[in-house]
Design brief:
The protein is mostly helical. The chain contains 19 helices and 6 strands.
């Protein structure tokens, strides 16, 4: 242990560990990892996956730092001196590589701890499935340092570290697509695509393949540094690659697995939330109760508020039809999760839009979205007694939506109360099914 302490002081290990912590925590706080239900501080699974995603930046830096360490003997001019001693080279360099490993393991643990402290207070759903994903990241990071040290020993040039860093960043960019893009080769990258749903996680098969592969990379790096016959260091990588590539998932569906426990609905007082979001029950109970009370004036009112537990919708995919006996809620659709919590009034307003129905569109914005938003605004206005604009698409469709909403609202108010009631109920059913035009249903085709 005394030798390990000396190596920690003499090498760049401690500095590298600090750099990894600063880079990963800084980017996690600054990047989109702080948004929506998949934020790195909201769920254990997303914590592990976001930290793995940040290896896009820390892995190349670690590779370059390892190369600088591997060049130490050659730069110091002591290579021939050490070669003349009878002590095996592996005994001496093992402490150096151990110092790098200890520093990186501690750094990775610190990053996870920073997120874990906040996850504990953000969710009641705990499981151990996230730990293998996180542990593979540790192996990948240590493997990068050891591989860099081996390459630095073979190529003791001042250009080696920056070239390796640039090459590492270029390699990491191949893994920035959707989950499963480029499989099976993308399975050999240390980073993961950023999480897109709290109701799914990395498949165990992919985690096992990556653990095998990065263990081979780490062993290869160790042998490149420790053996006099350095070319033997290529054997672990070749063996790991031959085994890992055929076993890697071949399709996106095989790379991701659903988490049925996270998606399980827990119902209390007509509010049904997924187990992953049970922590939000206290904040949503009041708005849910108020929404059901207001919607009670409909001929066929909903009887519960239920969270939708679905994975990410495709860019152009319309929502599927939903039963009208409940108010279906996707907490990410109205950005419920944000740095500043929403007020009860804001949540209630969002849930009343469309008379308690969800929007039919995802990220894709078709031309007819203005008519849908107008219809949702008018249905909410009939429930509350006053027309107010919804915040959606205000930047570029606000004027068109306001014009359509005002015309439809004036037309609806001019109708007898029984007719208004029937029109709103029919429009709600159209909006729930995502088939037809809810605005035309409200106005009888006049708008």
């Amino acid at each position: 242990m005394r030798i390990l302490g000396i190596e920690l002081r003499r090498t760049t290990a401690v500095l590298l560990g600090l750099l990894v912590v600063l880079v990963m925590v800084g980017l996690l706080e600054w990047a989109p990892a702080t948004k929506n239900s998949t934020a790195w501080t909201r769920q254990w699974t997303t914590l592990a996956e976001w930290v793995r995603f940040m290896l896009v930046f820390s892995w190349p830096l670690t590779l370059a730092a390892g190369a600088m360490q591997g060049m130490r003997d050659r730069r110091s001019g002591v290579g021939e001196l050490f070669a003349s001693t009878p002590r095996p080279r592996a005994h001496r360099v093992g402490w150096t590589l151990g110092a790098l490993a200890v520093s990186l393991v501690v750094a990775y643990a610190v990053v996870l701890a920073v997120g874990a402290v906040r996850v504990v207070s953000a969710t009641d759903y705990f499981h151990l499935g996230w730990m293998p994903v996180a542990l593979v990241g540790v192996v990948a990071l240590v493997g990068a340092a050891w591989l860099g040290a081996g390459l630095g020993r073979l190529l003791p040039s001042p250009l080696a570290p920056p070239v390796l860093a640039a090459g590492g960043f270029a390699l990491m960019s191949l893994g920035l697509g959707q989950p499963g893009d480029g499989l099976p080769w993308s399975a050999l990258l240390p980073s993961l695509p950023f999480p897109r749903s709290v109701f799914s996680s990395v498949a165990a098969s992919l985690t096992a393949v990556q653990a095998l592969w990065f263990a081979g990379v780490a062993l290869a790096g160790f042998l490149l540094v420790a053996l006099r016959r350095w070319w033997l260091g290529a054997l672990p990588v070749l063996v790991a690659g031959v085994v890992a590539v055929p076993l890697a998932p071949a399709t996106p569906g095989e790379a991701v697995t659903a988490d049925p426990v996270a998606a399980e609905l827990v119902c209390v007082e007509r509010l049904c939330l997924t187990r992953a979001h049970e922590h939000e029950r206290a904040a949503l109970t009041g708005p849910a109760r108020e929404v059901l009370r207001v919607l009670g004036k409909l001929p066929s009112p909903p009887t519960s508020v239920r969270e939708v537990a679905t994975s990410e919708r495709g860019w152009r995919d319309r929502r599927q039809a939903e039963p009208t006996d409940a108010v279906w809620v996707d907490l990410d659709e109205f950005t419920y999760f944000r740095r500043t919590p929403m007020t009860s009034e804001q949540v209630t307003s969002y849930l009343l839009a469309g008379a308690g129905t969800r929007t039919c569109y995802g990220d894709y914005i078709p031309e007819e979205v203005a008519r849908e938003v107008a219809a949702r605004s008018v249905m909410a206005a009939w429930l509350t007694g006053h027309l107010q604009p919804l915040p959606s698409y205000r930047a570029w469709l606000g004027d068109e939506i306001d014009t359509l909403s005002a015309a439809a609202w004036d037309h609806l108010r001019a109708l007898p109360e029984p007719t208004r009631l029937a029109r709103v109920q029919a429009a709600r059913e159209v909006q729930a099914s995502c088939v037809g035009d809810a605005l035309s249903t409200l106005t009888g085709g006049t708008t």
